[in-house]
Amino acid sequence: MYQNILVPLDGSRNAEVALKEAIELGKKFAAELFIASIVNEQQFVAYGSMAAPAQFYSDMRDRSQQILNEAEADAKAAGLKVTTILANGMPKRAIAEELPEKYDIDLIVMGKSGVDALSRIMLGSTTSYVVRHSMTKVLVVNDEADDTEDNTTEVE
């Protein structure tokens, strides 16, 4: 049913739970996982980091690469084929439009919210944007600690 599953990661607990769900789906469908971390260029402006942009950018890329390395190890340990993607840009557009088209993604699995509350307030929820704009199926996974009974919502 699914051959190419995209999992965007930002280091949040919800993203970790989404990765676990994607790994299980990948095993069930013998799918390849495309694990992505997008360095958000908008954060340079949002956090007023123009004083030391090179160091801030380098730190963001290093953290994103660390997230990818850990996720890749988990997926490979589960026996899955994995492609990691470290990209620059606007995460919303990259996840909803650019990466699915480039990698022929047929399912996006993501957490309902990420680590960046300030950006969410200022710029809007990435998950909400992806659900509204993606032409690919989207599975939104709640943190297991959530009080809701149903921890997943699939939107087409």
TrEMBL record:
Gene3D superfamilies: HUPs. InterPro entries: Rossmann-like_a/b/a_fold, Universal_stress_UspA, UspA. Pfam families: Usp. Residues 1-141 form the UspA domain. It comes from the Bacteria. Belongs to the universal stress protein A family. This is UspA domain-containing protein. It comes from Loigolactobacillus coryniformis subsp. coryniformis KCTC 3167 = DSM 20001.
